[in-house]
Amino acid sequence: MTKKEITQLSYEITGFAIKVHKTLGPGLLESIYEECLKIELINNGYDIKQQLFTTINYEGVDIKTKLVVDLLVNDAVIVELKAIEEIFPIHEAQLLTYMKVLKKPQGLLINFFTDNITKSLKPFINEYFKELPN
Question: What is the CA radius of gyration of the chain?
């Protein structure tokens, strides 16, 4: 994928998150927003993966583990959802670590506990994004 395609994909995911938020409003459990966003994405032809198994190498030892990724869209953008009053640095670190371990170029941290979801959405890119063609 190109930087342009990843950026467009993130824009489309954001649009579906806005639709879910406008329909349901704030105050529900994260799992409800996750399921609704997943439905929107699948119904619109996107490939979704969750609860990914991967191997992390630590000092030459391969450790098989399961990462509880909320949504991986089209094998390119990790979407981490929250429904909490405030996003803390640990939430950002979690997403950045998932992106690094899974070697994905972009992540979206979306908090549904807000009156305006665009103000609570944070996109992240990493070195894998920077290596992509324009």
Answer: 15
Q: Where are the alpha helices (DSSP H) in the chain?
A: 3-24, 30-43, 89-102, 127-130
**Cβ neighbours for 31, distance < 8 A, ≥ 6 positions apart:** none
Per the rule left: phi > 0, alpha: psi between -120 and 50, beta: everything else, 74 is left
Compute the average pLDDT of residues 20-44: 97
pLDDT of residue 34: 97
Burial class (CB in 10 A: 0-12, 13-18, 19+), 47: exposed
Q: Please identify which residue in the block is written with the tokens 């324009």.
A: 134
C-alpha torsion sign, points 115, 41, 132, 82: positive
List the end-to-end C-alpha distance of the chain, in Å, as a whole number. Answer: 9
pLDDT tens across 51-82, in order?
888 888 899 999 999 888 999 999 999 999 99
Is the CB of residue 37 less than 8 Å from the CB of residue 10? no
